[in-house]
Design a protein that fits this description.
alpha+beta; 23% strand; 3-stranded antiparallel β-sheet; 6 helices; single chain
């Protein structure tokens, strides 16, 4: 099958079109909702964040780069071969690193060879530092999800011992529980939303349980998945 040429104008596709393209390429989403599967892969860092923009119908919807379909093929092949989440995470990270290096090399010109190669050296150093930081992270901080079961719409997030993270309130819901063993009775919890959480107008920490986690709640259910950052200060 001839693949569609990628350009700056058509690189972003709505989630529905990404799912259609993935299925045509033989991607099996299993029994779970494909939309939730994409959100899951995004949360654990296997896919880039969705970009919300208007569709052809004028509706606001999440969009992914077309390259996501190829990433989904890599993930499926690795899962079928029995690879663990940690191994898949490492493979995807290495693939992205190689792509960044190749893209940087293509940008080099003969006229500015000295400046360009100095820039390339700086890029490589930054990539090495990024890899070093990734290796230093506790696997619990890198792979936040140990369970692939996404059938429940009211998902809880288990972030083990980390003190910050990203989660989201599913569309049609007004609360979500984040599991975190760092929570104590004196913990201060800070929340910043990255997405529109309308029609809700306010949000708060409705409960926290020492050694277990906390719950975020909005005054009314959100109309779309609403992502937020959270920090715990003890």
């Amino acid at each position: 099958m001839k693949k569609k040429k990628i350009t700056k104008n058509n690189n972003l596709l709505s989630v529905d079109k990404i799912i259609q393209a993935a299925k045509k390429e033989g991607i099996d989403f299993g029994k779970t909702d494909p939309y939730n599967r994409l959100r899951y892969y995004t949360k654990i860092g296997w896919l880039p964040h969705m970009i919300r923009k208007k569709t052809e119908r004028g509706e606001i919807a999440g969009h992914y780069p077309l390259e996501v379909v190829e990433t989904l093929k890599i993930i499926q092949d690795l899962k079928n071969s029995g690879a663990t989440n940690e191994q898949i995470n490492s493979k995807l990270h290495n693939t992205q690193t190689n792509q960044n290096i190749k893209q940087s090399i293509r940008m080099l010109t003969v006229k500015d060879s000295v400046t360009s190669y100095a820039l390339l050296g700086l890029i490589i150093v930054l990539i090495i530092l990024q890899i070093t930081q990734l290796k230093k992270k506790d696997p619990k901080n890198v792979i936040l999800y140990a369970n692939d079961d996404l059938s429940s719409a009211n998902q809880n997030y288990d972030y083990a011992n980390v003190t910050s993270g990203v989660a989201y309130i599913p569309r049609g819901s007004k609360s979500i529980t984040v599991k975190n063993t760092n929570i104590n009775e004196l913990s201060k919890i800070y929340i910043t939303f990255n997405d529109d959480y309308s029609p809700a107008s306010k949000y708060w920490v409705s409960s926290k349980t020492a050694g277990e986690g906390f719950t975020i709640e909005t005054d009314v259910p959100v109309k779309a998945d609403s992502e937020f950052n959270w920090w715990v200060s003890n």
